[in-house]
Structures are given as structure tokens and as C-alpha cells.
Amino acid sequence: MTNVSVLMPFARCNETNLIIGIEEASRGHKCNCRCLSCNTPVTARKADVNQWHFAHRTDKVCTSNECNFSPVTAIALILRQQISSLQNFDLDDWSFDDVMWQLDLNINGVMIDAFARDTTNSLSIAVEIPFANDKGTSLEDLVSVADIVLSIDTHAIATYLFAEHSKATLLRPAQIFDLLLEHWHKWVKNLHPSAQEPESVNSVSVDDDLTKELIQPSHFPVPNAPPKAKCVCCDKHEATYGKGLLCKGCVWKHVGPDFNNLTDMINFYRNRI
Fold this sequence. Notes:
Blueprint: E1 10-13, E2 19-21, E3 28-34, E4 41-45, E5 53-56, H1 71-82, E6 89-91, E7 94-96, E8 99-107, E9 110-118, E10 124-128, H2 139-143, E11 148-152, H3 154-161, H4 173-182, H5 184-187, E12 188-192, H6 208-214, H7 248-254, H8 262-270
Parallel strand pairs: 10-11
Antiparallel strand pairs: 1-2, 1-3, 3-4, 4-5, 6-7, 8-9, 9-10, 11-12
Helix pairs in contact: 1-3, 1-4
């Protein structure tokens, strides 16, 4: 993905210092933004014919040397910006109820892309969010400073959004983070502690006759599948966010205009139940 040429869909706003999508920017030089890679001033090209994108400005001396925009690096920067919105979440057997994120943290000489500690149970989590050419920190070092270690596949996310020979998907940073949450098990790997395979029936020492009797289908009746939960917001579509609370359509519709992030929306409707 690092060698694929992609029109620049993101830039950093000079007023807020936050990364924004091209759809959020004012047209032309009024966007008041700079390149994520080289800090060169950019202009927002939002023509009716071509794909909207940011481009390096050519009316200043400092823009004579343009850089190569890296979609992987852009995704890594966006996830670093948005991960602070993830304050209450469940991760396998662990629950995080009140966390504060720190970025690019150095703990005892170990560099961590994103680090958080739950103030209620002191559980700590380290997250790898690699740039395009990032070699990363060794797992042994990360395990020495955090209880849980995760790694986000930024290359896979960039490929999904900007696949070669296809039209790029233009999303706001908040929507990209929501996309990560939707594809969490596909794009996020739990490096520590690793999941253990359940013990198989064959590994258990039991009487052969008893084993044959136990594994008969009659001993394992299949219950009727529980009905899929409906979204508490629209009461129409299947709820896939917030552990069966909200549907994808309502999340994309209301996160941004009505809620700062997905966590706020989930907490709002969870408190109404």
C-alpha cells in the first residue's frame, strides 16, 4: 500500500491542529490547512468533476518541493487522534470504564504509540498504531510495561479505503475510527495475552462408552436462535454497535452532527434504557 499513489483526502487544520477530511474543509486556500507529511500549505480542490482532495499550494516558495502522501501514515495519525474518544469499552474478558489515553509515550525506554490505564482497576493497555515504514516495538518490551498489548493493521485499513483501481472512500476521521470499531476483529490483533484454544474433547481422559454417549446429538439440543436486537435509536434495523444497542445507519447519521463520538452516543442511549 505504501507505493500506491493516492490523492490527499486529509490535512491538518491550522486553527484547531486537528486532522480533517476534504469534505469538512472550505474550498480553495480558505481551508487553512497543511500537509500531514511535510507541513506544506495545501488547497482544497472540490471540483464537480474530479475527486475532491487536498493539494500542495504552488504560490509560495516553501511549496517548491512536494512530498509523497502516505495513506498508511495518514490512517495512523487519524487513529492516534481519535482513540482518545474510546474511554469506556469491553475487550474480551476485560472491561475499561474510565481511561485516559497518552500518545507516543516513553515508559522505561519503551516507546508506545498509545497507552491507557483504567483508573478503577489499574489495568493497562498498549496499542501499536504503525506508520508506513514503522518497524514497531518488540512484543517483549511492550509486555514489560502493559497488561494488554494490541496491534492495529493500518496497512489493511488503508488498502480497504484506497484500494488500487477503485474510487477512494472519503470519510471523516471520526467515521474512520468507527470503521475500525466495526472491523475490530479483522484489523486489530491481540498480541498479549494471546487467546488460548479451548481444550478439545479428545484431550480429556474419560471412559470411551461415556464419551460416545455424551457426544450423541440427542444430548445437545439446539435451542432456537435468539431474535436479533433492534436499534434503540430507530427501532428498525439490526443493532451491531454498543453490544446490540445501535445500528450502523444511525451511528453514521448521528455521530458528528449530534454526538462528538461513538462512545457518547452509546452512553446516551444506554442511560435511557
